[in-house]
Amino acid sequence: MASLNVGNLGEYLREQRRTAQLSLRQLADAAGVSNPYLSQIERGLRKPSAEVLQQVAKALRISAETLYVRAGILDEKEREELETRAVILADPSINERQKQVLLQIYDSFRKENAAEVAEAAEAAEAAEAAASTAKAADAGADAGTPGPTPDAESPSR
Predict the structure, then answer these.
(1) Which end of the chain is less enclosed by CB atoms within 10 A, N or C?
(2) At CA 67, angle to CA 71 and CA 65, rounded to 5?
(3) Distance between CA 17 and CA 21 in Å, rounded?
(4) Cβ distance 4 to 44 under 8 Å?
């Protein structure tokens, strides 16, 4: 079998398994997957589903979102947002209403920052377009202006 492009998921899983001091068989049993299948994932020969990754993450006691990012299922920004939300929702020191209000504030900040980034990108594009236009105009003006002719520079006889 050819190796699939699943980033460094397999290496990462192997490292986490060894850190947890689990054999391949122990992790496979704890995650509810077959030993050969888990071995293929670690060697980069199989790309597991999100459900399998979640089971493996639970068995290793690590973030499933981290595995999703490494497998290419989730991008880094999405993972950070999900983890932030999970931490807020898991906080036992605040009540459900407070959690919902905090999530609403978090969402409003993210939207505000995304809008500012988009505006800055548009302004940069506009400035770049204006600079290109000005440069093209300067080049056209230079090409269209006749320079001094040799007769004009030499004294008349």
Answers:
(1) C
(2) 115
(3) 6
(4) yes
- What gap in Å lies between CA 131 and CA 9, rounded to an integer? 44
CA distances from 112 to 7, 33, 87, 107 (A): 32, 43, 22, 9
For 93, the token pair is: 């020191």
User: pLDDT by residue (tens digit) across 84-120?
Assistant: 888 888 889 999 999 899 989 988 998 898 888 888 8
DSSP string of 89-145? HH-TTS-HHHHHHHHHHHHHHHHHHHHHHHHHHHHHHHHHHHHHHHHHHHHHHHHHS
CA distances for 144 relative to 87, 139, 140, 141, 147, angstroms: 65, 9, 6, 5, 9
User: Rounded distance, CA 85 to CA 87, Å?
Assistant: 5
Q: Which of 52, 57, 23 is nearest to 37 (CA)?
A: 52
Asked whether the beta carbons of 31 and 67 are under 8 A apart, the reply is no
With 0.70 as the threshold, say if the pTM is over it. Answer: no
Euclidean distance between CA atoms 36 and 27, whole angstroms: 12
